[in-house]
Write a structure and sequence with these properties.
Elements (H helix, E strand, L loop, with lengths): L1 E6 L12 H8 L4 E6 L12 E3 L7 E3 L1 H12 L6 E11 L2 H7 L4 E6 L7 H6 L3 E4 L9 H12 L32 E2 L2 E2 L9 H19 L6
Parallel strand pairs: 1-2, 1-6, 5-6, 5-7
Antiparallel strand pairs: 3-4, 8-9
């Protein structure tokens, strides 16, 4: 999979993809993340990418020309499954969406900044709009990193044990069950005996029951 991220602050995206699972995915050749500096497509000597909003509203707006030129340049080189815009008023990102995007081959992610982007870009270039929550960030870079991480780890071969992703929270609209590791007892706090029983059937049943219980307590909305 290839993901091209368009941003005006590329330095914000250097660290998230240089460590841990995302770095492993890149080293294996399974995920290529390209961070594209929109300033390279800016207008004039100052490489302008933003301007005042028509109508007198406070704040700057990302201009249509630099972004359109950047997207057209990328599309001239390959076909993209989606052109995604990170925005607070997009569709809320969830595990189901991550699963769907993990099946794609090429994605463009546009990171908003300032007051946002010219509406004509949303009308004519953007195919999917994603929000990571009901709050506003300084820009779409951190949100884009969240999406790439959630999607990238689902690509076959990225995780050492691919089956582990199947038991993540939200995969089946339930929260994950409690997990434990050694020692079996610490400070008088013991691991549930069923996990030490060696009986796969009982362990599986316990995990399902605990997952349902935790969902009912913490996220009953998921059960609807």
């Amino acid at each position: 999979m290839q993901i091209d991220i368009i941003t005006v602050v590329p330095d914000l995206l250097q660290s998230p993809f240089s460590h841990s699972i995302m770095k492993r995915a890149a080293d294996k050749g399974l995920l290529q993340v390209n961070v594209i500096n929109l300033r390279n497509y800016g207008l004039g000597k100052s490489k302008q990418v933003d301007d005042k909003a028509f109508g007198g509203e406070a704040g700057m707006v990302m201009m249509i020309e630099p972004i359109a030129n950047c997207i057209n340049d990328l599309k001239a080189k390959k076909n993209y499954d989606e052109v995604i815009y990170m925005t607070p008023d997009g569709k809320t990102f969830n595990q189901k969406m991550a699963n769907q995007l993990s099946l794609k081959e090429n994605l463009i992610i546009l990171c908003g900044h300032y007051k946002g982007i010219d509406e004509r870009l949303r009308e004519h270039f953007i195919t999917m709009e994603i929000s990571v929550g009901d709050y506003v960030l300084s820009g779409g870079e951190l949100a884009a990193a969240v999406v790439v991480d959630a999607v990238g780890r689902l690509i076959p071969g990225v995780l050492n044990d691919e089956s582990s992703a199947l038991f993540d929270s939200f995969q089946d609209d339930l929260l994950s069950h409690p997990i434990y590791t050694r020692p079996a007892e610490y400070n008088g706090w013991k691991v549930p005996p069923v996990l030490l029983s060696g009986d796969p059937k009982l362990v599986k049943q316990w995990k399902e029951e605990q997952s349902l219980k935790r969902t009912e307590e913490r996220r009953p909305d998921l059960l609807k």
